[in-house]
Amino acid sequence: MDNGAARPVDPRVMETMIPYFAEIIGNPASFHSEGFKALNAIKTARKQVADLVNAEPEEIFFTSGATEANNLALIGGAQRYKKQGNRVIISAIEHISVINITKELTRQGFEVAKCPVDEEGLLDIDELEKLVDNNTVLISIMAANGEIGTVQPLKEVAENAHSHGALLHSDATAAAGQIKLDVKEINVDFMTLSSNDLGGPKGMGALFIKKGVRVKLHMIGGGQESGVRSGSENTPGIVGMGKAAEITKEEMMKEAERLTSLRDRLIEGLTDVIPESYLNGHPTNRVPNNANIRFSFIEGEALIMSLDDLGIQVSSGSACAAKTLEPSHTLLACGLKHEEAHGSLVFTLGKNNNHDQVEYVIKELPGVVKRLRAMSPLTPKELR
Ligand code: PMP
């Protein structure tokens, strides 16, 4: 139940990719039939990814993943338009890749402001309005948070950004495939998509760039991807991401219904039975696959290891920040104390999870919490 960190590749995606490793091996830039086959496959994939978010194929640029797409949008976008302003705004709960990119932007002379969120992780729109000014060049707000699941009001953010001449980027890694995303309806300028989160191969992503919006190039070379991102195309990876996007579009609504019911059963089954356990994030305005629950008086790491022994894999925050042992910046931004943030578990469900597994977690976790609390000096007497 740690699909936010890594997902299995859908077998239909794998099957689609296989011929592109050793059979259809042309370079899409080549002027011969093998090259044309690769070029056509990439064209199909670009359309499949575009269709998932209602973009035009020419607005989709393949990258090596969400991190690169975030770099391209934030550094490329801010630098390209720096004559128009030097202020960049992000939310306090962006993914670590976005946070670290803005540290680099600060070094480059940009002024970076973080917009706070409320205790359920929802962006404080009034605060955003105060932060945005005519010197703001770019705003980056994730579509949904991968740790606490909260979905953000992007349309409102876009209106706000555009009224000040700023561009809006959204990291949709945790939202794409979970909720409907329509780049035209939101009126977003940049959107980051990750392949693995759609059931595609790892090491693949895409950046949506609205027609007419430009970036300063960060990968200079042979001019692939319409000059926006040079480097010979990863044809199998692109084909895989395209197929994953197509399957996601077809199956998303049904799968979201199934995951929502698993998620709600998990939340209810754990918080009803385990004393001093609470849901983090928004109770309803959350992606279908995410349950983040905090258990007072214990450490998430101890919980993770005990659950691993029982064959249950979960996370205590973003996998990308897991090695720091710092409490999650997302939970701290929601107002949790350090010790509360440390005692939280993130469940991210996927196609590989079912009802029996949820019931197994509900059966096993209360005993684990009880045992760890009995060992914790922080546990009050009545809970021991
Ligand atoms: N943004 C978000 C919201 C993420 O959850 C992740 C990690 N899955 C990334 C960006 C970075 O993705 P990658 O490591 O695949 O580049």
Features:
384 residues, alpha/beta, Aspartate Aminotransferase, domain 2, Aspartate Aminotransferase, domain 1, 7-stranded mixed beta sheet, 3-stranded antiparallel beta sheet, 10 strands, globular, binds 4'-deoxy-4'-aminopyridoxal-5'-phosphate
Question: Would you mind describing this structure in some detail?
Answer:
- The chain is α/β, with parallel strands linked by helices.
- It has 2 domains: 11-248, 3-Layer(aba) Sandwich (Aspartate Aminotransferase, domain 2); 252-376, Aspartate Aminotransferase, domain 1 (Alpha-Beta Complex), CATH 3.90.1150.10.
- It has helices at 11-17, 19-22, 33-52, 66-80, 96-107, 125-131, 154-163, 183-186, 235-273, 300-309, 329-333, 338-342, 355-375, and strands at residues 60-63, 87-91, 111-115, 136-140, 167-171, 190-194, 205-209, 277-280, 290-295, 344-348.
- The strands form 2 sheets. Strands 1-7-6-5-4-2-3 form a 7-stranded mixed sheet, with helices on both faces. A 3-stranded antiparallel sheet has the order 8-9-10.
- Helix 1 (11-17) packs antiparallel against helix 9 and helix 4 (66-80) runs parallel beside helix 5.
- The longest helix is centred in the middle third of the chain and has 39 residues, at 235-273.
- 4'-deoxy-4'-aminopyridoxal-5'-phosphate (PMP) is lined by residues 65-67, 95, 97, 142, 146, 171, 173-174, 194, 320.
* Oligomeric status: single chain
What is the average of the pLDDT values? 95
CATH class of the largest domain: Alpha Beta
CATH architecture title of the largest domain: 3-Layer(aba) Sandwich
Q: Report the strand count.
A: 10
**Anisotropy-based shape:** globular
Q: Ions, cofactors, ligands: which are bound?
A: 4'-deoxy-4'-aminopyridoxal-5'-phosphate
Tally of individual domains: 2
Strand order of the largest sheet: 1-7-6-5-4-2-3
Helix residue percentage: 40-55%
Strand content bin: 5-15%
Contiguous helical run count: 13
Counting helices, strands and paired strands, the structural category is alpha/beta
Largest sheet: 7 strands, mixed
Give the SSE order as H and E letters: HHHEHEHEHEHEHEEHEEHHHEH
The CATH topology of the largest domain is Aspartate Aminotransferase, domain 2
Poorly predicted residue ranges: none
Terminal-residue CA separation: 28 Å
Our Rg estimate from Cα atoms comes to: 21 Å
